[in-house]
Specification:
This is Xaa-Pro dipeptidyl-peptidase C-terminal domain-containing protein. With about 575 residues, the chain is an alpha+beta fold. It is built from 14 helices and 27 strands.
């Protein structure tokens, strides 16, 4: 009898769950589990928020997420209270939506179908917007690519750009790739084993074992065909390119776009790539805006004053719901443009704690000042470093040198020890990297724009990775990361490589930054080939994902700073903004 009751309960419960549920909450007309038919006869699950009473058809805001649409409840309630229909949708194969979730592959088509379904509803005025951050930001760009007629504006925040900032940046992945895939496996979020405290030690052991990066999914107990496919496409190629808009798609979209990112946002580079591509193709440049705050990835939606020890001030704490509301009131209802958007680009300066406004990226960049790298000795550590100087003084040593042995990484920081204000990385340098310091600043300076690093190298091997990290050290010796970049050297077969050949590389995908450099502070540049968060390069010829410790080759690299082979750091600097 008990089993029968349980069975009847299960049948009734599943029947109830399968039906739309309507509720009136806080003057909101709420519909849960509305099925939206997609072009392949699968159904996406949606929750719909509308004002309880409205006299005319409504503009609509769509939020598509792989993280369970319930996360959007606070937005749905807010926007419905302000006269919008808000539609939160589970991505294909996630939550209550049917199908299989394969990241990046069908989000655009599904987005098109959802947008046009919303526009066809009797309560819709056929004006539809999209919003959301991170993967939800990518989904907006993917939907724009498909050109749904009813899509009038998007607000992509901290947007993932496939193979530009995730799962790769400059061809180098981090273990977070598999951590994220583990998180979104199945229908619901796997939070307990997504966090770094669980994944980092497993990845650290994989590195110590000399195992290939390709084994990471199995080590985490979750073999992933998606992970394996991504490893087969380590560069931005046609596989990735088909997922994002191309020039003709940007040109065809005539609605306004508001892009949001932060200086410490992990998808900063992706957001800027979309924005630059849009601006190079659009015919509507005056209606596209970029907000560049000081935030990390989460802070692009929930800003805080303290970003891993870096204090950024109250002025940075934007009310993003109000900004979105003002944007939608302008673009969907014809009201005034948001007062915060005084020009097309809003940039927050860390240190002076003020917002500054610019017409375009070119006017945002301060004039470049070149800092030549030099040294009195070939090998460095944090207490005996090289020099970054704006003068043309000849370097006593023609080059700085370090060794990278993939099998000998004792002393390098563990993957959990990297932070914006920590100094573990610099302190761990001892012939396994090089460090350059500037002289103390005689007066405060503003650093704003694109940083670039030009290195003249020679090496005994043709293939390895380089990581460059730029810090500000205040007069008390406290450190804060300004930005970092990385590059994968691929110069052919090691057996054909000439160790005496000098070649130039450029690292020019540092974050777009804005900060005040205090008087008596100095800059620190760290260059190494070892970073425990990222895929280990064993310096072999084949695909790095398949390399193991058995084929490891020790590397010796020289960074030259003499004559025409002068390595330098280029910084956009000025005494004023």
């Amino acid at each position: 009898m008990r089993l029968l009751c349980l069975s009847l309960y299960s049948i009734v419960a599943s029947f109830v769950i399968a039906l739309p549920i309507y509720a009136m909450t806080d003057q909101i007309d709420f519909t849960w589990h509305k099925k939206i038919k997609l072009r392949d006869d699968k159904h996406a699950a949606a929750s719909i928020y509308k004002p309880a009473i409205f006299n005319a058809s409504l503009p609509s805001i769509v939020f598509i997420t792989p993280y369970n649409r319930d996360e959007a409840n606070k937005y749905g309630t807010y926007f419905a209270q302000h006269g919008y229909a808000f539609i939160a949708v589970d991505s294909r194969g996630r939550g209550d939506s049917e199908g299989e979730f394969i990241p990046f592959e069908k989000d655009g088509q599904d987005g098109f179908d959802v947008i046009e379904w919303v526009a066809a509803q009797p309560w819709s005025n056929q004006k539809v917007a999209m919003m959301g951050g991170s993967y939800r930001g990518f989904t907006q760009w993917a939907t724009l690519k498909e050109a749904p007629p009813s899509l009038k504006t998007i607000v992509p925040t901290a947007s993932v750009y496939p193979a530009i900032d995730f799962p790769y940046k400059n061809d180098i992945p981090t273990y977070y790739v598999m951590s994220w895939l583990h998180f979104i496996s199945g229908k619901t979020n796997n939070s307990a084993r997504f966090n770094q405290a669980h994944v980092a030690p497993i990845y650290a052991k994989l590195r110590r074992d000399g195992a290939s990066f390709r084994e990471l999914d199995k080590r985490l107990g979750n073999p992933s065909s998606i992970f394996q496919t991504w490893l087969d496409h380590p560069k931005y190629d046609s596989y990735w390119g088909k997922m994002v808009p191309q020039a003709q798609h940007y040109r065809a979209f005539t609605g306004p776009v508001l892009s949001i990112t932060g200086q410490y946002d992990g998808d900063h580079l992706g957001t800027l790539n979309y924005y630059k591509n849009l601006m190079s193709s659009t015919q509507n440049a005056k209606h596209h805006y970029l907000v560049l705050g000081p935030w990390d990835h989460a802070g692009t939606r929930s800003p805080k004053k303290n970003i891993d020890g870096i204090m950024v001030g109250n002025n940075s704490l934007l009310d993003f719901k109000k900004l979105h509301l003002a944007w939608f009131n302008w673009t969907l209802k014809g009201e005034e443009k948001p007062t915060f958007l005084k020009d097309n680009i809003a940039t927050f300066n860390i240190g002076s704690n003020r917002w500054h406004y610019y017409r375009d990226l070119q006017s945002l960049n301060l004039p470049n000042q070149r800092f030549n790298l030099s040294s009195a000795h070939k090998q460095h550590n944090v207490f005996s470093s090289g020099l970054m100087t704006s003068s043309n003084t000849l370097s006593a040593a023609p080059y700085s040198e370090y060794q990278y042995d993939p099998l000998h990484t004792k002393g390098m920081p563990k993957s959990t020890e990297h932070s914006l204000t920590g100094q573990n990385t610099a302190m761990a340098i001892d012939n396994n990297g090089v460090i350059f310091h500037s002289r103390k600043l005689k007066q405060a300076l503003f650093l704003q724009g694109q940083i670039s690093l030009s290195l003249w190298l020679s090496s005994n091997i043709a293939n390895t990775d380089l990581f460059a990290m730029l810090y500000i050290i205040d007069k008390y010796g406290k450190s804060a990361l300004i930005s970092e970049d990385r590059v994968r050297l691929k110069r052919g077969a090691n057996r054909d490589h000439n160790p005496n050949e000098l070649y130039q590389i450029k690292l020019n995908s540092f974050a777009l930054v804005s900060r005040k450099l205090p008087k008596n502070s100095r800059l620190r540049l760290v260059v190494t080939s070892e970073h425990s968060r990222y895929q280990k390069h064993y310096n072999g010829d084949g695909p790095v994902a398949d390399q193991t410790g058995q084929g490891a080759i020790p590397a010796t690299l020289q960074i030259h700073h003499h004559g025409k082979y002068q390595s330098s750091l280029n910084l956009p600097l000025s005494h004023t903004l």
